[in-house]
């Protein structure tokens, strides 16, 4: 497939690009700072790098030409503190992305989310309640934005008739294991950590298998 990848300069995004290349996909990487991409990715003949902002509708729409699916590792920075903007920039970016996808007839979106995005299949988990509450209290604007991302993908995705998946992640690690469990909060199977390599492996596999279409599973290491 020919893919557009967003958030490609972050550690999860780099893993996602690498995994997609291993699976023989061709990739358009739409990034604000191309210089942050590893040289091995930037110089790969299967990769096209386009510099642009997520608010640049014209550039983003052009980047979607010929694309079959959009994979996103976009998320709030890990160190946000009180300076994170209050106007939900990621959620607004996803609205722009979905509108551009609709213009090009691109129907598949797989996006990173977190446990702050609730799902009707979730059950109560004390440890996840603690983790989410901590984010809500100490990084409230980032929390508000990621919750809005979930709402935007579900609402705008339904309006655009998208086949979307929100891969909700717990605490991310740099372990190399690609083992992953997919389920929901409090199901007795999912845990509180996930390697970035496993996130990438799940997304690329989901692109091929479509097991979680229009769903928001929590994915974790076993």
TrEMBL record:
InterPro entries: NAD(P)-bd_dom, NAD(P)-bd_dom_sf, Polyketide_Oxido-like. It comes from the Eukaryota. This is NAD(P)-binding protein. Residues 7-208 form the NAD(P)-binding domain. Belongs to the avfA family. It comes from Wolfiporia cocos (strain MD-104) (Brown rot fungus). GO terms for molecular function: oxidoreductase activity, acting on the CH-NH group of donors, NAD or NADP as acceptor.
